[in-house]
Amino acid sequence: MTQIIRSSPVLAFIALQISFIFFASTLTCTSGSEDSCYTITGRVKIPPSNVIGHTEKFSNVKVLLNGGHKITFLRPDGYFTFHKVPAGTHLIEVSAMGYFFSPVRVDVSARHRGKVQATLTETRRSLTEMVLEPLREEQYYEIREPFNVMNIVKSPMGLMVGFMVVVVFLMPKLMENIDPEEMKQAQEEMRRQGVPSLTSLLPGAGASR
Amino acid sequence: MAIRVFLLLLLFLSSAIVSFSLYEDQAGLADWHQRYIGKVKHAVFHTQKTGRKRVIVSTEENVVASLDLRHGEIFWRHVLGTKDAIDGVGIALGKYVITLSSEGSTLRAWNLPDGQMVWETALSSAHHSKSLLSVPINLKVDKDYPITVFGGGYLHAVSAIDGEVLWEKDFTAEGFEVQRVLQPLGSTVIYVLGFVNLSEAVVYQIDSKIGEVVAQKSMVFPGGFSGEISSVSSDKVVVLDSKKSILVTIGFIDGDISFQKTPVSDLVENSGNAEILSPLLSNMLAVKVNKRTIFVKVGGEGKLEVVDSLSDETAMSDSLPVADDQEAFASVHHEGSKIHLMVKLVNELDNVLLRETIQMDQHRGRVHKVFMNNYIRTDRSNGFRALIVMEDHSLLLLQQGAIVWSREEGLASVTDVTTAELPVEKDGVSVAKVEHTLFEWLKGHVLKLKGSLLLASPEDVVAIQELRVKSSGKNKLTRDHNGFRKLILALTRAGKLFALHTGDGRIVWSMLLKSQACERPNGISLYQWQVPHHHAMDKNPSVLVVGRCGSDSSAPGVLSFVDVYTGKKITSSDIGHSVVQVLPLPFTDSTEQRLHLIADTVGHVHLYPKTSEALSIFQREFQNIYWYTVGADDGIIRGHVMKSSCSGETADEYCFTTRELWTVVFPSESEKIISTLTRKPNEVVHTQAKVNTDQDLLYKYVSRNLLFVATVSPKGAGEIGSVTPEESSLVVYLIDTITGRILHRLSHQGCQGPVHAVFSENWVVYHYFNLRAHKYEVTVVEIYDQSRAENKNVWKLILGKHNLTAPITSYSRPEVFTKSQSYFFAQSVKTIAVTSTAKGITSKQLLIGTIGDQILALDKRFVDPRRTLNPSQAEKEEGIIPLTDSLPIIPQSYVTHSHRVEGLKGIVTAPSKLESTTHVFAYGVDLFYTRLAPSKTYDSLTDDFSYALLLITIVALVAAIYITWALSEKKELSEKWR
């Protein structure tokens, strides 16, 4: 499953044009219960996709009513049904790995024989057209940035090397730009103060002198 | 100083590169995920000659799964809803798995190879009843025999192809309860046998095509039936009468009913109550009587005779047709540490087809269920394999005298979890044995570097993964410096204690609870009993396992003390009183055993350990021990205090009576308690004060005795959709459990439960449903101490009114104030937890177990009541996030990444020794473990740290130094020549 995410996120995104179509049919609950109960049917429509693991992913989609009070699964054609739902306002959630769905507010009307009205709670969009797409695709992993010279340069090691390069190659250039008179003066000053030169700091420098 | 600045820069840079979330190749490095199914209820084998051999199982955790018969792996599985218990499983048409659930009202078909749901049918049902699924064994695939289902007073015939209900028969008026459906081969008439009011046997003959009753016969049995039934052949069933002393054979040949009574005492002398066992054997039944299992053969005219008798701890399978019209069944019984598997022919019990003896782990308990399957060997003889379910819920496949595979399904029903340290490494064992040579080491790091620069080939990636696992040494059985290696102790519903290693999740040891008083106690909860500091005492730590003999809360309790290192039981005792509440006290005795109080149903408390030392410690603190009980049914919270020793009633000096100190009564007509929560007793709080942006101090009200209570109006206690916003309101309280004072009350109009909350330091975060917006909401309440607010500087702290030397009385009202804020949240929630670290310095993350069985890590900064729409510059610098109306769900912050912890029930966090890191363990049907660093690993280098790059840099620097030295010398020389 993780392979799909990596291999073709674009394809998977195109493939997921999921639409919900809601309708309800009255189905008088059994003689035992007084309330008439209704059926909520929706559809999750996924166009055929050649992504590996697509069917496995599809079969692991769960549809949950009222926070897991009832759970159902998708049929091969994407339909799902909740049976014996009393009239009232309900909440349907879709749990699918890799996608984020907005919860759907579903009003089942008792007066209109189980007429169903659906609204996305996240975007407050009413599903009059009865078409819903997942709000977004979810990537559970951070994408590694491709190899980049700047990354190396920006890393602490790169900065260290860069600093060295600056000192080694640019500093002499700067030295050259200094007025020879001033340079000489500075050097004399340094000699007087006895500031060791770079060579005297290094091992073996004394021997070479 | 410069070095420090540089180091800081380095730290900052490295942390800026390391992202909070995981890269894909890091999955499984610090985390593991184990998939389970639960205790198997039904099993159906599917072993056609072609294709993979599999077994379809349904379990007590409402899972239907297809398992590989060769290795025991899960091909596919589906976790149904918690109220959707599976009643029956079958295979129809050779390609669909049929499950009947919800007391016979939901019938589903799943595609056998991949588990895709094919169809789902809701069946009408009028009342709760036993349900029955009968899937015809199709010999001809082209002919569609209907599936017959009985449940809730209705009999249905359902087409296996598309789930269409062909016909239904309403038996609710008659009160007819179907017991058996028999479908003779090749006939269109099905026989439906059932009882009316357990006194009248009725047989319907129904045309299976149209559902019309062809004939009906009924006969009253004066004694009445007990409901236990066993069908022995296609036209005979045997039932017990209501007194359980007479076996009644009911024959219904061609619709004529005949009774034939055989008193059990005729079969066995001095018989007590008999019990018909569930296995279906042809022309025979198994009856449990006098603690023996007897096999009773049913003769042609319904004559019964005893043919064999076994000890009652024998488990049997259904009989199975083998060659030449003979049927065989398997039986398993124990003998010491071995189990004997026997396969016998039903007609000739002396003819044992197979006799195998298998060594069995003592801690698996007895055999509960046996499912048998046969296969044809290459030499044309019959081979048998048996799937057995043990008492600890584990599932094993036996074949050819060996355990082919086993699954620890007990772990699918974990009830309580705690963590424990591993033993300290002994001297003389080298830690760094992993890194062999310098070359190997370098090679590894070059590989890692390649990986982090995205230059690695797929083989390299695999090699990197292996290397990482190997080099981390994460699977060792000793304590490590960072505290990453730990034991997770999980107590299961079956009463088995497992110790899992955090490194790879393997079972280090397991132990089944035992008790003298009852056969098998249930596990309730786990407590840290003795945690000796390893410098002070050379003793192994131990845990207390509280169990109960039976499911009733008044059943006597069982205490077991288990050594954490070895998994051996130290002692166990039947305590003789019930266990309602266990209170770990904050005192330990000289051997570092923690004192525990156990409250029973009659209002007494009992002190453990029962030593005089513990008693003297307890007597000293007698006045300072308070606790509370929550009566969710009557809506009363009571505070209790110790009264006296209960020496007047019993001679037990460790038993004490209590008296009620305070009560908080919620009006039952308007409020119903749905959730209560306190802080974790072992939580560490690093600082009591919080500095505001304007250099103001806020003192956290950090009290261990705060209780969070959520109530809803009784109408709103049901599911969403059952109530209108006007009818429901949610009220939350913060109650001091010592004085019973309500410190804070917050009411949410038009909201309802379920409430999931988490309580840490001085804040509570809870999740509930807002009916008006029809969205879930999360509210945070932070509670601050007003009385210390004056202590703004050192002088005021010492000399001020509220310094620590001022007298404190519990009668004074604590001056507290709260801040709260609410946000929308886009998902249902199953549970919420919070990360916990060793010193409490690291910022916290909420771990939200969502309805999709994933765990979302949400920074506490998102639920901070100081968030405003436009935070000032100073507030921004402090890390206050601009206010949004809903909490973000960032997919990268799912700690479970691409896994689902199916059937998620709880999340447990435990600190590691490294301050930045916390252990997270989630359990449900699946188990998931990971390590989290809520503020990134600021106190250690990450696994990703590239030593190779560091080495290369150092080499480069040294080279550069020498080059510049050479250049500098050359230049100096030339200058000297000038």
From TrEMBL, chain A:
The keyword Transmembrane helix applies. Residues 56-160 form the ER membrane protein complex subunit 7 beta-sandwich domain. InterPro entries: Beta_sandwich_EMC7, Carb-bd-like_fold, EMC7. Residues 1-32 form the signal peptide. It holds the Pfam family EMC7_beta-sandw. The chain crosses the membrane at residues 157-175. The keyword Cytoplasm does not apply. Keywords: Membrane, Signal, Transmembrane, Transmembrane helix. It comes from the Eukaryota. It is a single-pass membrane protein. It is found in: Membrane. Its main location: membrane. Residues 184-209 are annotated as: Disordered. Belongs to the EMC7 family. PANTHER family: ER MEMBRANE PROTEIN COMPLEX SUBUNIT 7. This is ER membrane protein complex subunit 7 homolog.
TrEMBL record, chain B:
Keywords: Endoplasmic reticulum, Glycoprotein, Membrane, Signal, Transmembrane, Transmembrane helix. It is a single-pass type I membrane protein. The keyword Metal-binding does not apply. This is ER membrane protein complex subunit 1. Residues 1-21 form the signal peptide. Component of the ER membrane protein complex (EMC). Residues 22-409 form the EMC1 first beta-propeller domain. It comes from Camelina sativa. It is found in: Endoplasmic reticulum membrane. Residues 760-977 form the ER membrane protein complex subunit 1 C-terminal domain. It holds the Pfam family EMC1_C. The chain crosses the membrane at residues 945-968. The lineage of its organism: Eukaryota, Viridiplantae, Streptophyta, Embryophyta, Tracheophyta. Belongs to the EMC1 family. PANTHER family: ER MEMBRANE PROTEIN COMPLEX SUBUNIT 1. The gene is LOC104735169.
